[in-house]
Design a protein that fits this description.
heterodimer; A: 308 residues; alpha/beta; Rossmann fold; Alpha-Beta Plaits; 2 domains; six-stranded mixed sheet; four-stranded antiparallel sheet; 11 helices; elongated; B: 258 residues; mainly alpha; 12 helices
Chain lengths: 308, 258
C-alpha cells in the first residue's frame, strides 16, 4: 500500500533522509520509529505531497506521489505534527471546511461530519471554538480531519505527543479502532507506542533505515536466547546452583527467590528445571517467559547498524 | 471553482470573527465620509466664490461637481487603501504558515491556484463590500444635485482595480513571510514607494516622466477617476494584479522544493 524506494531529501547541505526504502502492506499499522531529527516527519511530508523528494520514488495505493499527487492526496488522511487548526472556527465548522476541501460531495458532507465527530468522540465539544478546547481534544480534531473523507491510508505524525497518560491511552485505542480496512502509518519516538499499537515497525536513524519488519519477526530475529523468570518460595540460592548445572543453560541470575534463566534457542531445559524444583520442594510460585522488550530491540538495532 | 470558493468562504468568515475587519471597515468608512464632506465643502467654497464674481459683474463659472467633489474624493480614498489593504492581506498566507494550517491546505486535493485565487477573492470581496457601503454618500449627491454618472462609475472601477492590485501585492508579501507584521509593513512600504513615484512623475519631464507615468499606479488611477476610461490603464492594473498573483503562486509552489 505504501512503497518508499531509495528516497533522499536534502535541505541544502543537510541530508534529512538518505536512501530510505520500505513497504507497508495493506491493512497494517506500521510505526516509523526513530530518535528526534531522524527524518520521520520529512518522510511523511514527502508521502503526503507536502514536500518533494530530492531523489527516489514513493507511491501510495497505486499512485506515484510525484506524478499523481492529487490522486494520492484523495486517498490519504494526514495528521501533521503540529495539528493544523483554525482557532477561530468551531469543531464542526472546521470539519465542514475540511470536508469541502477534501472534495466530499455536498450531499454527503453532513453525514461525513456526523460520522467523524462520533468516531473521534467529539460530539460533546462540537460547538466549541478550537482555541478553547483541551490539548487532547485538539489532537482528536486533528485525527478527525484526517479521517473525514474515509481515506484508505492514514499517516499520523506523532499522534500522542504532548498528551497526558490517560489521553495517550485513549488516542491509542482510537487509532486501533480505525484500522479495519485501513493502512496506518504513525511516527513516534516512544517505544511502547510501537509495541502497543503497531503490527510492524520501520526503525530509522539519521535518515537511514535500520530495519523494517513485523514485530513478531523482529522479536524472534533479535532473540538468540530464550528464557524464563522463576519465583520460588524458598532456597533461591540452592536452586540457582542446581539449574546452572542443567545442560544448555547459558546464564542464571538470582536475586532472593527470583531467578532469571536463559538458554540457547536450540534446546529447551524447562522440564528439567521444573523437576529439580519439585524434587527439592522449593515451592514454585511463578514461571513466565521473558521476551525481548522493544527497548532491547531498539537499542540493539541502533547500535548494530543495519540488520536484515 | 468550487474549491476556490471554499477557501474564499473560510477567509471571509475569518474576517468577520476577528476585530481587524471591523476596525478596517470603520476606518475606511470614517475617512470615506470625511473626504466626501471635505469635497462638498470645497464645492461650496468654489460656488460661493463664482457667485460673488458674477455679482460683481465678472464672468464666473459654476464649478463642476464631478471634478471638485468626486475626483477629490476618489483620490483621497485611494490613499486610505494604502493603509487598510495591507491589514486585510497580512494574515492570508503568513498566519497559515505560522500555525501550520498551510500543511492541511497543501496536502488536500486542491491546486495552488485555487488556494491563491480563493484568498485573493476573499480580500477583494471584503473590500468590495466596504466600497458599496461607502457608496451611500454618492447616493446623497444624486438626491441633492445632478453629477454625471459615467465618470463616477469610471472612478469606482478605478478604485476596484487599484484595490485588486493592492490585494495581490499584499498576498505576495504574505506568502513570503510567516510574520503578519512584516507582511503588512512590506506591503505598506511598497505601496507608499509606488505612490511617491507619482509625485516624482509630476515634477519631472521627458523620458523619466513617461517611464514613471507608466510605472506609477497613481497616474493610471488619476486617468480613471477623471472619467477617461483608457484600455492602457485597464491593462496596467490587470497585468499588475496577474503578475503579483503569479509570483504568489510561484512562492507557494516553491515551498515543496525547499
Amino acid at each position: 500500500m505504501i512503497v518508499v524506494d531509495h528516497l533522499t531529501k536534502k535541505y541544502g547541505e543537510l541530508e534529512a533522509v538518505r536512501g530510505l526504502s520500505f513497504t507497508v502492506d495493506k491493512g497494517k499499522i506500521w510505526g516509523l520509529l526513530g530518535p528526534n531529527g531522524s527524518g520521520k516527519t520529512t518522510t511523511m511530508r514527502i508521502l503526503t505531497g507536502y514536500l518533494a523528494a530530492t531523489e527516489g520514488r514513493a507511491s501510495v495505493g497505486s499512485f506515484d506521489v510525484f506524478e499523481r499527487p492529487n490522486e494520492v492526496k484523495k486517498i490519504i488522511g494526514y495528521l501533521p505534527e503540529n495539528v493544523p487548526l483554525y482557532p477561530e472556527m468551531t469543531v464542526s465548522g472546521f470539519l465542514r471546511f475540511v470536508a469541502e476541501i477534501k472534495q466530499i460531495p455536498r450531499s454527503k458532507r453532513r453525514e461525513a461530519v456526523a460520522r467523524t465527530l462520533e468516531a473521534a468522540g467529539l460530539e460533546a465539544v462540537r460547538h466549541r471554538l478550537l482555541r478553547n478546547i483541551s490539548r487532547g481534544f485538539k489532537q482528536r480534531v486533528g485525527i478527525a480531519q484526517a479521517l473525514i473523507h474515509d481515506p484508505q491510508v492514514l499517516i499520523l505524525d506523532e499522534p500522542t505527543i504532548g498528551l497526558d497518560p490517560a489521553q495517550i491511552v485513549e488516542i491509542r485505542q482510537l487509532i486501533k479502532s480505525l484500522r479495519r480496512e485501513r493502512t496506518i502509518m504513525l511516527s513516534t519516538h516512544i517505544l511502547q507506542e510501537v509495541s502497543q499499537t503497531c503490527d510492524g515497525v520501520a526503525i530509522i536513524s539519521e535518515g537511514r533505515l535500520i530495519v523494517s519488519s513485523s514485530l513478531t519477526e523482529l522479536a524472534s530475529s533479535f532473540a538468540d536466547l530464550e528464557g524464563v523468570v522463576l519465583k520460588v518460595r524458598r532456597g533461591g540460592r540452592e536452586a540457582a546452583a542446581l539449574i546452572r548445572k542443567v545442560s544448555g543453560v547459558d546464564k542464571v541470575e538470582q536475586e532472593g527467590t527470583e531467578l532469571r534463566v536463559e538458554w540457547a534457542k536450540s534446546c529447551d531445559p524447562r522440564e528439567e528445571i521444573l523437576s529439580i524444583i519439585s524434587q527439592k520442594e522449593m515451592g514454585l510460585l511463578e514461571m513466565r517467559p521473558t521476551t525481548p522488550s522493544m527497548e532491547d530491540i531498539y537499542l540493539k538495532a541502533i547500535s548494530g547498524g543495519t540488520v536484515q | 471553482m468550487k474549491n476556490l470558493w471554499s477557501i474564499a468562504k473560510r477567509e471571509l468568515q475569518g474576517y468577520f470573527v476577528s476585530p481587524i475587519a471591523y476596525i478596517v471597515g470603520a476606518i475606511f468608512l470614517l475617512f470615506s465620509g470625511l473626504f466626501f464632506y471635505l469635497g462638498v465643502l470645497q464645492y461650496e467654497y468654489y460656488s460661493n466664490y463664482s457667485q460673488q464674481m458674477m455679482s460683481y459683474g465678472g464672468s464666473g463659472q459654476m464649478p463642476n461637481v464631478n471634478q471638485v467633489v468626486f475626483t477629490f474624493y476618489f483620490f483621497w480614498l485611494q490613499l486610505i487603501l494604502i493603509l487598510i489593504i495591507p491589514l486585510l492581506t497580512m494574515k492570508l498566507f503568513a498566519e497559515e504558515k505560522r500555525t501550520g494550517t498551510e500543511e492541511l491546505l497543501l496536502t488536500s486535493p486542491l491546486s495552488v491556484g485555487q488556494i491563491v485565487g480563493g484568498k485573493f477573492l476573499a480580500s477583494l470581496l471584503f473590500f468590495l463590500v466596504l466600497l458599496l457601503l461607502s457608496g451611500l454618500s454618492v447616493l446623497f449627491s444624486f438626491l441633492y444635485g445632478n453629477p454625471e454618472l459615467l465618470p463616477i462609475l469610471s472612478g469606482y472601477l478605478g478604485l476596484l482595480l487599484v484595490g485588486a492590485a493592492f490585494v495581490s501585492l499584499g498576498l505576495l508579501f504574505s506568502a513570503l513571510t510567516e510574520n503578519q507584521i512584516i507582511s503588512a509593513v512590506l506591503t505598506f512600504g511598497t505601496l507608499l514607494i509606488l505612490q511617491f513615484l507619482y509625485y516624482v512623475f509630476l515634477f519631472t519631464s521627458g523620458f523619466l516622466k513617461n517611464l514613471l507615468g507608466s510605472l506609477s499606479f497613481t497616474s493610471h488611477f488619476v486617468n480613471l477617476i477623471q472619467g477617461n476610461l483608457d484600455t492602457a490603464d485597464l491593462v496596467y492594473f490587470l497585468s499588475f494584479t496577474f503578475f503579483a498573483l503569479f509570483l504568489t503562486h510561484s512562492a507557494i509552489q516553491s515551498r515543496r522544493w525547499r
